[in-house]
Amino acid sequence: MAGLDPATLADVLRLAGSDGFDRIQDQIRRTGGCSDPIRLRGSTVTRDRATGHVLHSYSTDTEPGGILRVACGNRRAPRCPACAWTYAGDTYPLIRAGLVGDPAKGTPDTIRDHPRVFATLTAPSFGPVHNRPGNRPCRCGTRHPEDAPELGTPLDPDAYDYAGAVLWNNHASELWRYFTIYLRREIAKRAGLTQKAAREQSRVSFGKVAEYQKRGAVHFHAVIRFDGPEGPDTPPPAWATLDLLTDAIRAAAARVAVDVPPAGDQPARTLTWGTQLDVRPIRAFGDGQEITEQAVASYVAKYATKAAETTGTVDRRIGNKEALALLGVPDHPARLIAACLDLHPLYPDRKLRDWAHMLGFRGHFSTKSRRYSTTLGALRQTRADYRAAQQRQTLGLPDPDDETEATTLTLAHWFYAGHGHTPGESWLAATIRRDLELNRQTAREELSGGALDEHDC
């Protein structure tokens, strides 16, 4: 407990000496060490349908403080590392199932034979920034180290197009939507088919994640895969080759354009993808020449929990420019946020003020097409069902899905009672989370012989 401030230390000692300490610790452990748990009050009663006899009952009245803590479920690592780890853990098998196949998750093992690429679509330039161009020095004449704070910041902030940068972020999801539309058209064109005929013979599935570059611009990493007419269960037609898919992606990206009308002192703009388009084949099993399925799934899972705070901004909404100085936001992200606040009255439907802390981006960070693989909801439901079955077995209750045993009725009443921890509980949650992470890492090292992939870390 060395280094704790007096208030936190006093609260830790209070908790440790309380009658309900063991139960508080158990609740926090069950949330995985969640940083901002939801507090609930309520009860649940399971009765025999025929007799009305109570088989099991639970009430938060018996809990310390009369509350039950449940995990917040926030995917963003700065907000809650514990729940972000779970989110990344769900994203990894979702993406991997669309690469290597997993019948339990809706994709056959033969999916490895389908043409697949890992594509990265970026934003255009809004002005020169400090960077590390290979073995050459930056335009400023300096060879920046990897952790240099000036990386991604403009060489001339006053000449940088901050308005264009945040408007591009704000429309990035629309750029992606148009890209998927044009991709299907370009595929049909290259196959010499009508769009209807191409759809009847093949499907294009994808799973993508958004990531912020150091300069604060969003870019997308996407797994894009050719399937047969019924999705992953059917092989793609002979014309659906890797080269055709790659060419179609490049052509579709070049076609995308989203027009932004003039407003106030802002000119009309046509937003497009940047010229840095990277399309790489994904090789089954990994032959050492191209990126592998494992690397792709790990990469996507890693960035599914990150957001704009990696650029130096904050992870909560900002109401005015005065807050930027109080929060200590660095100059470059502060200028991007200020641009959002200035542009909001000119484009009120774009909700730039609400998404200023995200540097204008208002889309989902992780998305997939319907037939790519399973869903996060299905994965979470499987985990919930498993835990519920464990609980029923412990309590000796019948399975409600078994028609021969469907003799019980469960009534539950819950309501919100706040969120968060006391200072001592926060310290306890962080300690539990670190212990769980260490245990997981140790277990995986034993299973993998000490070789961890990026997601494991």
Automatic annotation (TrEMBL):
InterPro entries: RepSA, RepSA_streptomyces. It comes from the Bacteria. It holds the Pfam family RepSA. NCBIfam families: rep_init_RepSA. This is Replication initiation protein. The lineage of its organism: Bacteria, Bacillati, Actinomycetota, Actinomycetes, Kitasatosporales.
